[in-house]
Amino acid sequence: MGEKNVKAYPGVSQLVAEQILAFVPPWSQPPLCGLQMILVNRYPGTDLSTTAVAAAQRHHKKERQIRRMVKMCWGFGLTLLERYSPISWAGKSLEDIYNYLPVTPDISTSGQPTREQFRAIRAAGFKTVINLLPENIENAMPGEKDWVESLGLTYIHIPVRPWAPTQEDFDTFSRHLESLAGEKVWLHCAANARVSAFLFRYRCEVLGEDPQVVKWDVRKIWEPFGVWKKITAWPG
Question: Is the domain of 171 the same as that of 198?
């Protein structure tokens, strides 16, 4: 490991820093005591300070955030190609939908589905589509309302600006979800960022679920930051 990486851990020897990086993969985040146990068991007699292990956690958290953003940007780019290219890049199954994430038996979330993917959503038994993506921006599907309703699905549109979500947006979102309890609902936006963030807050505030548990569903998609971190009371 180079000198630059060592400097990221003030007061930590190169050997200890290498141990941290070697045995704690970027996609893993066990508790602090778990990290200490891993390293002490591998290297008996190693004395790891809480500061050193916490520094390692911060380092890997940043790596995870970068990986998620790269994945999101890549997938988003493909959905733009799907919209503007005469060639279809996307598959037709639920699993092919960009950033597809089933949350409960009745609620699934995703980025923007294609026309054919909406057919798969209907075939899977979903009755209502809630779209948080404003029309005519990003990778929004032209004529989505008419298409979804032609498939016999209920369409609800709550346009949420990407960098300016409001309390009113969330209240409208919550009101519709509460009214649809027990019904199969598909939630989508451009990349499943807006949806996963609002659904996180809904599950915590309205359903009373534990934020420290629910946040891992969101982290499968992205790590909220800026105004999204504030409006969702993101636990970090």
Answer: yes
Amino acid (one-letter) located at 176: H
pTM of structure = 0.68
pLDDT digit string, tens, across residues 186-200: 999 998 999 999 999
Q: What is d(CA 20, CA 225) in angstroms, rounded to the nearest whole number?
A: 27
User: Which of 61, 17, 25 is closest to 43 using CA atoms?
Assistant: 17
Neighbouring CB atoms inside 10 A of 187's CB total 27
Residues in a beta bridge with 197: none
**Residue where a domain terminates, one of 64, 81, 98:** 81
DSSP H helices in the chain: 3-7, 14-23, 32-42, 50-84, 115-123, 144-150, 167-179, 193-205, 211-219, 227-231
Q: Token digits for 57?
A: 């956690």
Of 81, 113, 130, the one marking the end of a domain is 81
Structure tokens that stand for 103 in this block? 């949350």
Query: Does 201 share its domain with 106?
Result: yes
Integer angstrom CA distances of residue 104 from 5, 108, 176, 183, 211: 41, 7, 17, 11, 16
What's the pLDDT score for residue 139?
79
Residue 216 sits in a domain whose CATH number is 3.90.190.10
pLDDT in tens, 132-144: 999 888 678 999 9
Q: What is the DSSP string of 49-101?
A: -HHHHHHHHHHHHHHHHHHHHHHHHHHHHHHHHHHHSSS--S-SSGGGSTT-E
Residue 53 covered by a domain: yes
Q: Which domain holds residue 71?
A: 3-81
